[in-house]
Amino acid sequence: MDNFFDQENLRYAMIGSGSWATALAKLLMNNQERIAWYVRDDEMIEQMKISNHNPYYLPSAKFDPNRIFFSSDINEVIAEADVLVFCIPSAYFLPEASKITVSLDNKFIISAIKGIIPVDNITVAEYFNQNYNIPFSRIGVVSGPCHAEEVAMERLSYLTLSSKHIEVARSLCDVFACSYIKTVPGTDIYGVEFAAVLKNIYAVAAGICHALSYGDNFMAVLITNAFHEMRDFLHASHPDISRQTSTSAYLGDLLVTCYSQFSRNRTFGSMIGKGYSVQSAQVEMNMVAEGYYGTKCIYEINKKYGVHMPIAEAMYKILYEQKYPAYVIKQLTENLQ
Question: What is the model's pTM?
Fold first, then answer.
C-alpha cells in the first residue's frame, strides 16, 4: 500500500471557518509553512487578515495571515492543495460541496465534520467515496476528545486520526501533533464518524437533564447507558472485532461532550430543557449543535438495525415531535439501568 504522505511538499487546505476549523487550522500551521483556507465570506477574510485571528469564532487562536492563502472560492482553495481538511457543519455541507467543480483526483480528504450528511444519511467518508470515487485509503477522519476552545488555549489535548491503513493514520498524526496535542492513530473510520454523531445526541440529553435539575448521580447513569447505546449501534451497523469503544475516541469524546462547559450540544440541550424552542435556541447560540441534526439521522438509520436506543429515541421525541421534555425524561428514567 502506497502511503500518500510519503510525497514531499504536500500542500494543505482548510475548508470551513467555524471554531473547530479555526482550531485545526492553528494546528496545521504549527507544522506547515503555508496553508490555503476557504472562508465563504469575503468580509470575514478581510477581518481575519487585519486582526490575525478569526473575529467571529475562537478569537483567542492567533495566526499569521501572511502564511495563509485565503479565498471565498472553494475551487481556488482546492486547486491550491493536495490534502483537504473539510470542517463544515454537516447541515451546510451539501450546499458547499455542490460548488466543487475542480477535480478531487489525487487529493487526500480529511473529515473533521462531526455529523452525518442529511437526506442520504451517510457519513462524510461515504459521501466522498460514493460521489467522487475517492477510495477509503485516501480518506482520514479527525476525532476527539477535543474542544476547540482548549486547543486555542494550548491546553493538553488528544486527537485520534483514523484511516483505513495504520501507516496513513500515523502520518496523519504527524500532521496535527505538537507540544500540546497528543495524537493516536486508528483504522476505524466508520466507528469514529458515527461515535462523533452519537456523542452529540447524548450531550443534548445531558443538557436537558441538567436544566431539569437532575443531579450528578443520575447523570452518571445517563452517560453509562448512552455509552452502551453507542457501543451497540456501532456493533450493529459496522461490526469490527478490533474496535475498543472504551478508548478516548469513543468513551472519552462522549464524556467531554456531555460534561464540558464548552460543549455546544450540552448548551443547546440545556436551553431546550429550560423551555426554548429548537429555533430560538439555535438563533441565540449562533452556533451549530450537530446533535440536533444527528438525532434525526440516527433515528432514520436505526430503522434498519433496530438497536435498542431509548436515549436517542427520547431526543427524537423532544426535538422532532415536540414532546414535553420533563415528561419524556421522566419516562426515560424507567428504561435506564
Answer: 0.92
